[in-house]
Amino acid sequence: MVSQNDLLRDHQKVEMIRIGNLHKRYKKVIALNGLNLDIPAGSFFGLLGPNGAGKTTIVNILTTLTRPDSGRVTVNGFDVVKEPIRAKLEIGVVPQSINLDMELSARENLFIHGLLYGMSQKDIRQEGERMLSFVGLEECADRPVKDFSGGMKRRLMIARALMHSPRVVFLDEPTVGLDVTTRRKLWELLKKINQEGATILLTTHYIEEAEALCDMVGIIDFGKLIALGSPKTLIQRVGPIVVEQMAEDGIRTHFFSNRKEATSFIERLKGSALIREANLEDVFLELTGRRVNQ
User: In angstroms, what CA-CA distances link 261 with 117, 241, 292?
Assistant: First the structure.
């Protein structure tokens, strides 16, 4: 993988991903409506939005699977429409669905990926062993993938995505369906990938995942970017303290800048209420009016 110093030296003051006035329509459905977004090199960026907000379309365009109707998208300076083959060399993709060859071993899956990316057999062997060690699969490298657990398959998919030393890694719901313990182990692996220099773009339905991993988050709704910033900044923007008021029509949420204001508000209420610190899910609900999986 490219080191953080290399990224900063080669791309100082240049965004790793640039999206300008991006539009995409599927018949009568507007998926993206003039989206603008820049992602700096070395970022761990979380892309959040309700179902149908445009997340998948953005990732598909960035990974050259879908052509936009208009606008410009570059990855490390390469236009994904005009230079798709060159852009593909800059990216590694970990899709939501497991698309490994189940009859082959972990080592064989990595070998085929290396061949597809034009790597020499020497480089494939070297990088393959390095990646297997990096994701902790070296001891089962020759076992058929069909015998792997869900977490092991996810780790192998990450190793495969990193084989050709991409500068950007796209992770589409990488921990979906995994138990909490396995998910946390994957979090540590993803943090390590980012710390070693890769720019990461993550889509997830687990809000706590984005809050734990991402240094910057973008929230999109109806094909537009409606919020951008660090999780802490976004939480401060709506209010770091939450009062949940138990009302006849359900729970009403109120935001305050400090606990003193929240406590004063509760004292004037009739009925029960709960005071707590705000989180990124509160921000999401406040801005979109919907939960992330709606």
Answer: 58, 9, 29
Q: Which of 75, 9, 22, 46 is nearest to 234 (CA)?
A: 46
**Does any domain span residue 277?**
yes
180-195 and 150-162 helices, crossing angle to 10°: 10
Q: How many CA atoms lie within 13 A of 238 on its CB side?
A: 26
Residue 16 confidence class, pLDDT cut points 50, 70, 90: very high
DSSP codes joined into one string, 154-190: HHHHHHHHHTT--SEEEEESTTTT--HHHHHHHHHHH
User: Three-state DSSP class for 220?
Assistant: strand
178, burial (CB in 10 Å: exposed 0-12, middle 13-18, buried 19+): middle
Question: Residue 247's domain spans which residues?
Answer: 234-288
| 3 state SS of 257 | coil
Q: Are residues 160 and 269 in the same domain?
A: no
CA nearest 211: which of 121, 280, 137, 139? 280
Is this structure's pTM higher than 0.85? yes
Residue 229: pLDDT band (50, 70, 90) is very high
CA atoms of 203 and 190, how far apart (whole Å): 13
110 and 165 fall within a common domain: yes
Name residue 145's amino acid: V
Same domain, 98 and 181: yes
What pLDDT, on a 0 to 100 scale, did the predictor assign at position 252?
A: 85
Note the pLDDT of residue 2. 42
Q: What is the pLDDT of residue 291?
A: 61
pLDDT attached to residue 271: 77
Task: Provide the token pair at 263.
Answer: 């406590």
What is the sign of the dihedral through the CA atoms of 165, 192, 150 and 200?
Answer: negative
Which of 11-15, 25-29, 38-42, 117-121 has the least mean pLDDT? 11-15
